[in-house]
């Protein structure tokens, strides 16, 4: 069965430090992987995606993610965190072999302290 | 104007009442989804539709029904609301091809059943 795991409910980081939000997945075939961000009282906003090609993908607001096929991981990263990055982050996978459904992780709350 | 619009944004209803959440989109996408968000559980798929004649149950469809009135409109109904349906509900859309891989979300409807 397709699934996405975000092992950390919360990540705390100081402003200016690098951040990593972890995601692992299980999917048949080649994965389409995504990161979304949710600010309070808002919908989910698309950050970046991996479809094929370079394992390091760059997205909005300075975020990037590294696809690792052998570890089935797709960790979200940013070299220097901002207080305004504090939000809820979701990893998702699109199952191309099962009606193109999207599966989401449970979310990771990122807290960036000044 | 938002590409994916949900109405209402907030709703409080009583146990046993029927309620409809509406979603409309201007993306021109054929695929539409209804998700439910609960703290610590991420987003869970309620129903999805690939066109007006195609409706499919998701992981947690019990107690819900949907209607795809047009390509751009997808409504979610709770026939007899119960308190454990209190949650944040999201509508999403996606396209079919390699250039339309990510999902686009509405702002959400916060539903409280008392």
Please describe what this structure looks like.
The complex is a heterodimer of chains A (114) and B (114). Chain A is mainly beta and 114 residues long. Chain A has no helices and twelve strands. In chain A, the strands form three sheets. In chain A, strands 2, 5, 6, 10, 11 and 12 form a six-stranded mixed beta sheet that branches. A four-stranded antiparallel beta sheet of chain A has the order 3-9-8-7, with no helix packed on it. In chain A, strands 1-4 form a two-stranded antiparallel sheet. In chain A, a hairpin with a 5-residue loop joins β7 and β8. By secondary structure, chain B is mainly beta. Helices cover 0% and strands 57% of the residues of chain B. In chain B, the strands form two sheets. In chain B, strands 2, 4, 5, 6, 9, 10 and 11 form a seven-stranded mixed beta sheet that branches. Chain B is globular and about 40 Å long. The mean pLDDT of chain B is 92. Classes of the chains: A mainly beta (114), B mainly beta (114).
């Amino acid at each position: 069965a397709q699934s996405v795991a975000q092992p950390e409910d919360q990540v705390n980081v100081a402003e200016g430090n690098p951040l990593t939000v972890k995601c692992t997945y299980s999917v048949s075939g080649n994965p389409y992987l995504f990161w979304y961000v949710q600010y309070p009282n808002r919908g989910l906003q698309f950050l970046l995606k991996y479809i094929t090609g370079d394992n390091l993908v760059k997205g909005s607001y300075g975020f990037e993610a590294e696809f690792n096929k052998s570890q089935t991981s797709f960790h979200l990263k940013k070299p220097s965190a901002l207080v305004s990055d504090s939000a809820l982050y979701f990893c998702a996978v699109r199952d191309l072999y099962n009606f193109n459904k999207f599966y989401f992780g449970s979310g990771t709350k990122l807290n960036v302290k000044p | 104007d938002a590409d994916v619009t949900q109405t209402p944004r907030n709703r409080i209803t009583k146990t046993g009442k029927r309620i409809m959440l509406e979603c409309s989109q201007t993306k021109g996408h054929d695929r539409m989804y209804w998700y439910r968000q609960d703290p610590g559980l991420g987003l869970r798929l309620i129903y999805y539709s690939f066109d007006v004649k195609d409706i499919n149950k998701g992981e947690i469809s019990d107690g819900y029904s949907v209607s795809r009135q047009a390509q751009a409109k997808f409504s979610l109904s709770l026939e007899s609301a119960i308190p454990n349906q209190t949650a944040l509900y999201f509508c999403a859309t996606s396209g079919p091809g390699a250039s339309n891989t990510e999902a686009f979300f509405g702002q959400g409807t916060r539903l409280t059943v008392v």
